[in-house]
Amino acid sequence: MNIRDENVLRELNLYPLWVRRDTSAADAPEVSAPAGEVPLAAEVAIKPAPRQSESGSTSTLNWPELKQTVHDCTACKLRAGCTQTVFGVGDEKAEWLFVGEGPGADEDVQGEPFVGQAGKLLDNMLAAIKLKRGKNVYIANIVKCRPPNNRTPEPDEIANCMPYLQQQIALIKPKLIVALGKTAATSLLGRDATLGSLRGTLHDYHGTPLIVTYHPAYLLRSPAEKAKAWQDLCFAVQRMSE
Ligand code: SF4
Q1: What's the confidence (pLDDT) of residue 14?
Q2: Which atom of ligand 1 is closest in space to residue 102's alpha carbon?
Q3: Any idea which of 29-38, 130-139, 182-191 has the lowest mean pLDDT?
Q4: Mean pLDDT lowest among 5-14, 37-46, 82-91, 92-101
Q5: Within a domain: residue 24?
Q6: pTM of this prediction?
Q7: How remote is the CA of residue 55 from the centroid of ligand 1, in Å?
Q8: Which of 74, 77, 168 is the best mutation target for the ligand 1 pocket, counting ligand atoms within 8 Å of the beta carbon and taking the most?
Protein backbone atom coordinates (compact mmCIF):
# COMPACT_ATOMS: atom_id res chain seq x y z
CA MET A 1 0.00 0.00 0.00
CA ASN A 2 1.40 3.39 -0.94
CA ILE A 3 1.17 6.63 1.01
CA ARG A 4 -1.79 7.85 -1.04
CA ASP A 5 -3.76 4.67 -0.36
CA GLU A 6 -3.05 5.00 3.34
CA ASN A 7 -4.21 8.61 3.27
CA VAL A 8 -7.43 7.60 1.54
CA LEU A 9 -8.18 4.93 4.13
CA ARG A 10 -7.34 7.32 6.95
CA GLU A 11 -9.74 9.84 5.45
CA LEU A 12 -12.43 7.18 5.43
CA ASN A 13 -11.62 6.37 9.05
CA LEU A 14 -10.76 2.84 7.99
CA TYR A 15 -7.01 2.57 8.23
CA PRO A 16 -5.59 0.23 9.42
CA LEU A 17 -8.61 -1.84 10.46
CA TRP A 18 -10.19 -2.50 7.08
CA VAL A 19 -8.23 -3.14 3.93
CA ARG A 20 -9.54 -4.50 0.68
CA ARG A 21 -7.26 -7.14 -0.74
CA ASP A 22 -5.90 -6.36 -4.18
CA THR A 23 -7.01 -8.99 -6.66
CA SER A 24 -5.51 -9.92 -9.96
CA ALA A 25 -7.71 -10.53 -12.98
CA ALA A 26 -7.11 -14.24 -12.59
CA ASP A 27 -8.18 -14.30 -8.96
CA ALA A 28 -11.70 -14.56 -7.76
CA PRO A 29 -12.72 -11.23 -6.19
CA GLU A 30 -12.42 -11.36 -2.47
CA VAL A 31 -13.12 -8.86 0.26
CA SER A 32 -11.50 -9.05 3.65
CA ALA A 33 -13.50 -8.32 6.76
CA PRO A 34 -12.33 -7.52 10.24
CA ALA A 35 -12.34 -10.39 12.67
CA GLY A 36 -15.71 -10.89 14.26
CA GLU A 37 -17.68 -9.19 11.50
CA VAL A 38 -19.96 -11.07 9.17
CA PRO A 39 -19.24 -10.37 5.48
CA LEU A 40 -22.00 -8.94 3.38
CA ALA A 41 -24.23 -11.36 1.55
CA ALA A 42 -22.71 -11.98 -1.85
CA GLU A 43 -25.92 -11.97 -3.85
CA VAL A 44 -29.55 -12.10 -3.03
CA ALA A 45 -32.70 -12.35 -5.04
CA ILE A 46 -33.10 -9.46 -7.46
CA LYS A 47 -36.43 -7.80 -6.99
CA PRO A 48 -38.21 -6.18 -9.93
CA ALA A 49 -38.25 -2.42 -9.64
CA PRO A 50 -41.48 -0.60 -10.39
CA ARG A 51 -41.34 1.59 -13.45
CA GLN A 52 -41.03 5.25 -12.54
CA SER A 53 -43.11 7.89 -14.20
CA GLU A 54 -41.66 8.39 -17.61
CA SER A 55 -41.99 11.39 -19.80
CA GLY A 56 -42.39 10.68 -23.47
CA SER A 57 -40.69 14.00 -24.15
CA THR A 58 -37.46 13.00 -22.39
CA SER A 59 -37.11 9.31 -23.21
CA THR A 60 -35.92 9.97 -26.76
CA LEU A 61 -33.57 12.87 -26.05
CA ASN A 62 -29.84 12.70 -26.82
CA TRP A 63 -27.25 14.24 -24.50
CA PRO A 64 -27.33 17.82 -25.85
CA GLU A 65 -31.13 17.83 -25.99
CA LEU A 66 -31.41 16.42 -22.47
CA LYS A 67 -28.93 18.95 -21.06
CA GLN A 68 -30.80 21.82 -22.67
CA THR A 69 -34.15 20.50 -21.45
CA VAL A 70 -32.90 20.28 -17.87
CA HIS A 71 -31.29 23.71 -18.16
CA ASP A 72 -34.61 25.20 -19.24
CA CYS A 73 -36.78 23.20 -16.83
CA THR A 74 -39.23 24.93 -14.51
CA ALA A 75 -41.42 21.90 -13.95
CA CYS A 76 -41.39 22.06 -10.17
CA LYS A 77 -41.11 24.65 -7.43
CA LEU A 78 -37.44 23.92 -6.73
CA ARG A 79 -36.33 25.88 -9.78
CA ALA A 80 -37.57 29.18 -8.35
CA GLY A 81 -35.26 28.90 -5.33
CA CYS A 82 -32.02 27.70 -6.88
CA THR A 83 -29.22 29.42 -8.73
CA GLN A 84 -29.01 26.95 -11.57
CA THR A 85 -29.83 23.37 -12.48
CA VAL A 86 -27.10 20.82 -11.74
CA PHE A 87 -27.24 18.27 -14.52
CA GLY A 88 -24.55 15.73 -13.64
CA VAL A 89 -20.91 15.20 -14.43
CA GLY A 90 -18.58 12.54 -15.70
CA ASP A 91 -17.93 9.94 -18.32
CA GLU A 92 -21.06 9.60 -20.43
CA LYS A 93 -20.14 5.98 -21.16
CA ALA A 94 -19.24 5.15 -17.56
CA GLU A 95 -19.66 1.69 -16.08
CA TRP A 96 -20.18 3.24 -12.63
CA LEU A 97 -23.05 5.60 -11.90
CA PHE A 98 -23.27 7.25 -8.48
CA VAL A 99 -26.59 8.90 -7.66
CA GLY A 100 -27.12 11.31 -4.79
CA GLU A 101 -30.15 13.23 -3.57
CA GLY A 102 -29.86 16.78 -4.86
CA PRO A 103 -27.53 19.77 -5.08
CA GLY A 104 -26.42 21.52 -1.90
CA ALA A 105 -25.19 25.07 -1.51
CA ASP A 106 -21.77 24.49 -3.12
CA GLU A 107 -23.25 22.48 -5.96
CA ASP A 108 -25.87 25.16 -6.56
CA VAL A 109 -23.14 27.76 -7.00
CA GLN A 110 -20.72 25.66 -9.03
CA GLY A 111 -23.26 23.76 -11.13
CA GLU A 112 -21.62 20.39 -10.44
CA PRO A 113 -22.78 17.58 -8.15
CA PHE A 114 -20.78 16.60 -5.09
CA VAL A 115 -18.38 19.47 -4.64
CA GLY A 116 -17.46 20.85 -1.22
CA GLN A 117 -16.74 18.59 1.75
CA ALA A 118 -19.19 15.85 0.78
CA GLY A 119 -17.74 15.86 -2.71
CA LYS A 120 -14.23 15.59 -1.34
CA LEU A 121 -15.25 12.56 0.67
CA LEU A 122 -16.93 11.01 -2.36
CA ASP A 123 -13.74 11.56 -4.36
CA ASN A 124 -11.80 9.80 -1.59
CA MET A 125 -14.31 6.95 -1.57
CA LEU A 126 -13.83 6.64 -5.34
CA ALA A 127 -10.06 6.71 -4.94
CA ALA A 128 -10.24 3.98 -2.29
CA ILE A 129 -11.60 1.61 -4.96
CA LYS A 130 -9.28 3.03 -7.63
CA LEU A 131 -11.90 5.14 -9.37
CA LYS A 132 -11.79 8.79 -10.29
CA ARG A 133 -14.45 11.37 -10.97
CA GLY A 134 -14.95 11.66 -14.71
CA LYS A 135 -13.08 8.47 -15.58
CA ASN A 136 -15.48 5.56 -16.03
CA VAL A 137 -17.61 7.29 -13.40
CA TYR A 138 -20.70 9.44 -13.77
CA ILE A 139 -22.25 11.36 -10.87
CA ALA A 140 -25.83 12.61 -10.82
CA ASN A 141 -28.64 13.44 -8.43
CA ILE A 142 -32.30 12.55 -8.10
CA VAL A 143 -33.32 16.22 -8.40
CA LYS A 144 -31.38 18.76 -10.44
CA CYS A 145 -32.28 21.85 -8.43
CA ARG A 146 -31.26 22.62 -4.86
CA PRO A 147 -34.06 22.15 -2.31
CA PRO A 148 -34.31 25.11 0.06
CA ASN A 149 -32.17 24.73 3.19
CA ASN A 150 -31.05 21.35 1.86
CA ARG A 151 -34.34 19.75 2.82
CA THR A 152 -35.26 16.37 1.41
CA PRO A 153 -36.92 16.66 -2.00
CA GLU A 154 -40.67 16.17 -1.86
CA PRO A 155 -42.41 13.35 -3.75
CA ASP A 156 -43.84 15.63 -6.44
CA GLU A 157 -40.41 17.19 -7.02
CA ILE A 158 -38.83 13.75 -7.34
CA ALA A 159 -41.58 12.60 -9.68
CA ASN A 160 -41.10 15.66 -11.90
CA CYS A 161 -37.34 15.30 -12.07
CA MET A 162 -36.97 11.52 -12.26
CA PRO A 163 -37.48 11.27 -16.05
CA TYR A 164 -34.24 13.24 -16.51
CA LEU A 165 -32.25 10.77 -14.43
CA GLN A 166 -34.00 7.89 -16.17
CA GLN A 167 -32.86 9.24 -19.51
CA GLN A 168 -29.33 9.81 -18.20
CA ILE A 169 -29.26 6.16 -17.16
CA ALA A 170 -30.64 5.08 -20.53
CA LEU A 171 -27.89 7.02 -22.32
CA ILE A 172 -25.02 5.99 -20.03
CA LYS A 173 -26.01 2.31 -19.75
CA PRO A 174 -23.93 1.82 -16.58
CA LYS A 175 -22.96 -1.63 -15.35
CA LEU A 176 -23.72 -0.65 -11.77
CA ILE A 177 -25.66 2.08 -10.03
CA VAL A 178 -24.57 3.09 -6.53
CA ALA A 179 -27.38 4.90 -4.73
CA LEU A 180 -25.98 7.33 -2.16
CA GLY A 181 -28.44 7.69 0.69
CA LYS A 182 -32.03 6.78 1.35
CA THR A 183 -33.63 9.32 -0.99
CA ALA A 184 -31.63 8.11 -3.97
CA ALA A 185 -32.22 4.47 -3.11
CA THR A 186 -35.95 4.65 -2.48
CA SER A 187 -36.56 6.94 -5.45
CA LEU A 188 -34.77 4.59 -7.83
CA LEU A 189 -36.27 1.44 -6.34
CA GLY A 190 -39.73 2.94 -6.12
CA ARG A 191 -40.46 1.80 -2.59
CA ASP A 192 -39.92 3.04 0.91
CA ALA A 193 -37.46 1.24 3.16
CA THR A 194 -34.75 2.02 5.64
CA LEU A 195 -31.27 2.48 4.28
CA GLY A 196 -30.04 -0.22 6.61
CA SER A 197 -32.46 -2.74 5.14
CA LEU A 198 -31.37 -1.86 1.59
CA ARG A 199 -27.62 -2.14 2.17
CA GLY A 200 -25.77 -5.34 1.39
CA THR A 201 -28.29 -6.41 -1.23
CA LEU A 202 -27.98 -6.43 -4.98
CA HIS A 203 -31.08 -4.67 -6.30
CA ASP A 204 -32.26 -4.23 -9.84
CA TYR A 205 -33.08 -0.99 -11.59
CA HIS A 206 -34.77 -1.99 -14.85
CA GLY A 207 -32.06 -4.50 -15.62
CA THR A 208 -29.13 -2.56 -14.14
CA PRO A 209 -27.69 -3.84 -10.84
CA LEU A 210 -27.98 -1.33 -8.03
CA ILE A 211 -26.43 -1.21 -4.57
CA VAL A 212 -27.10 1.17 -1.73
CA THR A 213 -24.74 2.96 0.61
CA TYR A 214 -24.62 6.06 2.76
CA HIS A 215 -24.62 9.59 1.40
CA PRO A 216 -21.22 11.25 1.91
CA ALA A 217 -22.86 14.19 3.71
CA TYR A 218 -24.26 11.72 6.25
CA LEU A 219 -20.85 10.13 6.65
CA LEU A 220 -19.38 13.54 7.45
CA ARG A 221 -21.90 13.83 10.28
CA SER A 222 -21.56 10.20 11.36
CA PRO A 223 -17.94 9.18 10.72
CA ALA A 224 -18.39 5.93 12.64
CA GLU A 225 -20.50 4.71 9.71
CA LYS A 226 -17.61 5.04 7.25
CA ALA A 227 -16.59 1.45 7.87
CA LYS A 228 -20.03 0.33 6.70
CA ALA A 229 -19.68 2.49 3.60
CA TRP A 230 -16.38 0.77 2.93
CA GLN A 231 -18.16 -2.58 3.20
CA ASP A 232 -20.63 -1.36 0.59
CA LEU A 233 -17.85 -0.20 -1.74
CA CYS A 234 -16.16 -3.57 -1.45
CA PHE A 235 -19.49 -5.21 -2.26
CA ALA A 236 -19.75 -2.97 -5.33
CA VAL A 237 -16.23 -3.85 -6.48
CA GLN A 238 -16.97 -7.51 -5.95
CA ARG A 239 -20.11 -7.21 -8.06
CA MET A 240 -18.26 -5.43 -10.84
CA SER A 241 -15.57 -8.09 -10.86
CA GLU A 242 -18.02 -10.92 -11.47
FE1 SF4 B 1 -37.08 20.72 -13.30
FE2 SF4 B 1 -35.93 18.88 -11.77
FE3 SF4 B 1 -35.36 21.45 -11.37
FE4 SF4 B 1 -37.76 20.51 -10.70
S5 SF4 B 1 -35.80 19.90 -9.78
S6 SF4 B 1 -37.35 22.41 -11.86
S7 SF4 B 1 -38.13 18.97 -12.32
S8 SF4 B 1 -34.88 20.25 -13.20
Answers
A1: 59
A2: 5
A3: 29-38
A4: 37-46
A5: no
A6: 0.82
A7: 13
A8: 74
